[in-house]
């Protein structure tokens, strides 16, 4: 039994001796060695080996009992693909930690670090600088106050005042992780990716510096010269200059002052095109209030042309395709003067359009707006409500002057309906075309052109005294506080005034009369209820 115990003790001593030998620093070369058994001084072409690392310097002090050394002059470390140059080195076998100081360069593959203070663990192959460093590769320059190299994981972690500079953009953040193989920079906390074209901001995301594709997943937005896009998730491709947003999307046209809200959206910087859909809300700011609109989808695009005549021709062609009789609602004073270039916006909104503004509401299937002539076109069974008046037609145009709706134009099948004091009776005017005039957000005059018909319930102090029915070529209606008040009839009006009881219910309505009060948006929240 005793012999077995002795053998066990000898085995443990051998294992301990082998472990100690493995941990011991080996002097591999030097030109001159002096000193005693505790401290050895080495000079000229000094070399050490430990933990698979090879270390060289001009001179060193080796502390034998502590199994550590201090190296000076032309310090170099070579370890598993890493090369480090420094002025001084303090190394301990107990921690495998190399403390390098002075003018330091650390190279791994195509990446180089320069700093003045670097701690490097040769066993774990991890480097750490804490007093500002600069990293360069073939395409990027990165600076930060603190950085940690995880060489075996091909990853570097940077914190505090991190700036990554590329010829096309600059990334600024306080927490960035960079993968040296994939070239993907991941960041947490407020991060800005800046370029001449735009600014990408996020508080959690990544940027692939090879493919120029980025993604943000927290408070992310892309801000260009004319547009802004925000989303819970934002994907951006710098090569195509397209940003795609998902959930809680907000797109802002900073020039036209139009905001788009939805669940999906994208922004094309090259085409200057913005798109949004899914629970869509469009908000257009005016001087005194805002217009709120809902539909299935919206496109906003900016164009640059040499001369505005190009757009005038397209507008005229579009109007000629309809059976319009009156002149188009385009005025020369609304067109920018001729110049080398003109920039303008076109907005296209599709399907089940409903909008609300305090003084005007409307529904239609599609809506187009061109900022060059400042005209909003409503297509496919459009209806406009202004105060107590309902206006319908084949298509309707709203003209903006000084960013206010000041004129209404109906190109065909114009019909005006105003509910009388009796909810079952309606004042009505119809004709081929219509032009209305608005001032201070109030409709004060309506001109009905060609084949005009008229029904008006005449009252005296609230009492119905007669029903006026009339035909003529043109009618001008004047409104006071949004209510029909007086009329001018042109070119041989033909009509009569009957007592109220002499006109049947059927005869009190013009052909194709329709009253759409149940369809009218009642407030900005009601636009989401399609009826």
Walkthrough of the structure:
- By secondary structure, the protein is mainly β.
- It has 2 helices and 40 strands.
- The chain has a 40-stranded antiparallel β-sheet that branches.
- The longest helix is centred in the N-terminal third of the chain and has 22 residues, at 2-23.
- The chain is rod-shaped.
List keywords for this structure.
531 residues; mainly beta; 40-stranded antiparallel β-sheet; 2 helices; 61% strand; rod-shaped
Q: In short, what is this structure?
A:
With 531 residues, this protein is mainly beta. It has two helices and 40 strands.
Q: Main sheet? A: 40 strands, antiparallel
Which structural class fits the helix and strand makeup? mainly beta
Number of helical stretches of at least 4 residues: 2
C-alpha end-to-end distance: 99 Å
Portion in beta strands:
over 45%
Shape: rod-shaped
Rg estimate, integer Å: 40 Å
- Provide the residue-averaged pLDDT: 87
Q: Flag low-confidence runs.
A: 1-22, 308-338
How much helix, percentage-wise, in residues? under 10%
Give me the count of strands: 40
Topology record:
Elements: H1 2-23, E1 26-29, E2 32-35, E3 39-50, E4 53-63, E5 68-79, E6 82-92, E7 97-108, E8 111-121, E9 126-129, E10 133-136, E11 141-144, E12 146-150, E13 155-165, E14 170-179, E15 184-194, E16 198-208, E17 213-216, E18 220-224, E19 227-231, E20 233-237, E21 242-253, E22 258-268, E23 273-277, E24 281-285, E25 290-294, E26 297-305, H2 309-320, E27 342-356, E28 361-370, E29 375-379, E30 383-386, E31 389-392, E32 395-401, E33 404-410, E34 414-419, E35 426-431, E36 433-439, E37 442-460, E38 463-480, E39 483-490, E40 494-498
Antiparallel strand pairs: 1-3, 2-3, 3-4, 4-5, 5-6, 6-7, 7-8, 8-9, 8-10, 9-12, 10-11, 11-13, 12-13, 13-14, 14-15, 15-16, 16-17, 16-18, 17-20, 18-19, 19-21, 20-21, 21-22, 22-23, 22-24, 23-26, 24-25, 25-27, 26-27, 27-28, 28-29, 28-30, 29-32, 30-31, 31-34, 32-33, 33-36, 34-35, 35-37, 36-37, ...
